[in-house]
Design a protein that fits this description.
Layout (H helix, E strand, L loop, with lengths): L1 E2 L40 E2 L3 H15 L2 H4 L1 H7 L6 E4 L8 H5 L8 H23 L7 H26 L23 H16 L16 H14 L3 H11 L24 E5 L15 H5 L11 E4 L1 H4 L8 H5 E3 L18 E3 L21 E5 H14 L3 H16 L14 H15 L6 H7 L3 H5 L16 H6 L11
Antiparallel strand pairs: 1-2, 3-5, 4-8, 6-7
Helix pairs in contact: 1-5, 1-6, 3-5, 5-6, 6-7, 6-8, 7-8, 8-9, 8-13, 9-13, 13-14, 13-15, 14-15
Length: 495
């Protein structure tokens, strides 16, 4: 019988935190209702269908952890962009400025935090993939669980490869400390190939939707959309077009009101393709552990938050006149939100992230502010704009304009005087229009920095902040990982 150890092994040697899934079966309580990481009890495991369910549920619990949605993710995936500033008070968490100004060094703790968070997700997925096949249970459900784990592994490797470049490619739970732990960096192409393999296999099995109890689990649409995004980063435009064309036939659509997309009552909506599931569970504080909304919330008010990762003046100026997405993305000091919260006109920051905002009346004493706010990762508008970009790169301006217009039409909300239809068929001009649309549509959603890098515009857009070509396309690997690997892991150039 297999057992899991209720302990943390060293985070080094390219595996992140190797944490055994020693969770008592929890599937009867819902897949979000799992113990907080590090508090599970040791037990004989990987014997029953309930064990398989608990193992998969633990993946979902890990995705909403601090490393995945709070400071480490903000530092790596948001702060370096021109959309966001540090926020909060000038003296608090000043390390964010090193990310913002590209003066970061490999010893900064949030680099290691992000790295460990992704490898923890990968480890959870690998434990499912290594152990669930031997369990006697419903074969269709087993196949779905394995597909969910493959998507989660692919998602975390995608976050790693775009942040660091080539990383150790771990596809099984390590067993032999002499041979399995200390892996070198795989080539970027190898990492992307494995991501695509996992997503292809996941999409072949996952259902397009779920019944009520399982809404929010990973779907076929999520696997296909993530695959399209991975292909886009590799400029595989024919694949991007094919994959997004498929998703566009699957019943997704845009909610009529852009601001409402990000409210709690519209989580897992018809526009949602993949969200990190968070929850406020009155009887389980450990599982109500998301701090995504809390760390970005309006500072200085009950039910607000810490005030980090705030919209920049550069972002506020980037919207076309009258674009309602500006007010839907940015909470301005002194305004009254659509939910009726009055924001003090005097405070530390002139703006806050409205996409992470939870109305103050939903705050529950004793819980993290906004613990119930899901993190939107893939939305249908992303499918449309990826489709537009791919079509344009393949010289199909008609389809590109059509997909782009669908996004702009929703933002226009019937007001023909704003956001005029893009009509240019010039490839370069249309490309610029699509890039601009991606920025304002997905502002503060942790994509802007990597979009600019993949577009080859780092020096143009981020140069004034200190970005340097040949160095800042990627972040440094955690120095602790390199030191503990005995030199097997190598650092990115310039760090």
């Amino acid at each position: 019988m297999k057992k899991y150890l209720n302990l943390y092994k060293n985070a080094a040697l390219g595996i992140g935190l190797v944490l055994g899934i020693s969770i008592l079966p929890s599937c009867k309580k819902g897949f979000l209702d799992v113990p907080e990481e590090g508090k599970q009890q040791s037990t004989v495991f990987w014997k029953t269908a309930d064990d398989a369910a608990a193992g998969v549920n633990a993946i979902y619990g890990s995705l909403r952890s601090w490393e995945n949605t709070a400071f480490p993710a903000i530092a790596i995936e948001s702060t370096g962009s021109d959309d966001a500033d540090k926020g909060s008070t000038a003296s608090d968490a000043s390390f964010f400025l090193d990310f913002d100004l590209f003066t970061i060094d490999p010893d900064q703790g949030n680099i290691g935090g992000f790295w460990n968070g992704q490898y923890r997700n990968i480890n959870y997925a690998n434990q499912v993939l290594d152990n669930v096949p031997a369990i006697t249970m419903d074969e269709n459900l087993k196949a779905r669980y394995l597909a969910e784990a493959k998507f989660a592994r692919a998602y975390s490797y995608f976050r790693l490869v775009r942040a660091f470049g080539g990383v150790p490619l771990r596809l099984h739970v390590p067993k032999d400390a002499q041979t399995d732990y200390n892996l070198p960096r795989a080539a970027v192409s190898e990492v992307y190939a494995q991501i695509e393999k996992d997503l292809t296999e996941a999409a072949a099995v996952l259902p397009p939707s779920y019944t009520t109890a399982d809404i929010g689990r990973i779907t076929k649409g999520a696997a296909l959309t993530m695959h399209a995004k991975v292909a886009m980063y590799q400029k595989k435009w024919a694949n991007v077009l094919s994959l997004t064309n498929t998703v566009m036939t699957m019943g997704y659509s845009l909610l009529p009101n852009y601001e409402k997309v990000f409210r709690v009552e519209n989580e897992n909506s018809v526009e949602s393709i993949f969200e990190i599931q968070c929850a406020l569970l009155p009887n389980n504080k450990d599982a109500s552990n998301s701090q995504y909304s809390q760390v970005q919330g309006v500072r200085g008010v009950t039910g607000g938050g810490w005030g980090f990762n705030v919209p920049s003046a550069n972002l506020a100026a980037a919207y076309e006149t009258g674009d309602p997405r500006r007010d839907a993305t940015i909470i301005f000091r002194g305004e009254t939100t659509p939910s009726g919260d009055v924001i003090d006109p005097i405070g530390d920051n002139p703006m806050y992230n409205q996409k992470s905002y939870v109305p103050f009346n939903l705050f529950v004493s004793g819980f993290n502010e906004g613990a119930q706010q899901n993190v939107r990762v893939l939305r249908y508008s992303d499918v449309l704009l990826m489709n537009a970009e791919a079509a344009n790169e393949l010289n199909n301006s008609t389809q590109a304009i059509s997909s782009l217009e669908e996004v702009r039409k929703r933002a226009r909300q019937g007001n023909a005087a704003i956001l005029p239809k893009v009509t240019t068929t010039d490839q370069a001009a249309l490309r610029a229009a699509i890039y601009r649309e991606r920025r304002v549509e997905f502002a503060m959603e942790f994509d802007r920095f990597f979009d600019v890098i993949r577009q080859g515009r780092g020096a143009e857009v981020f140069g004034p902040k200190g970005w340097k070509a040949g160095r800042n396309e990627v972040w440094p690997l955690p120095q602790t990982e390199i030191d503990l690997s005995g030199g097997v892991l190598t650092q990115n150039p310039g760090y």
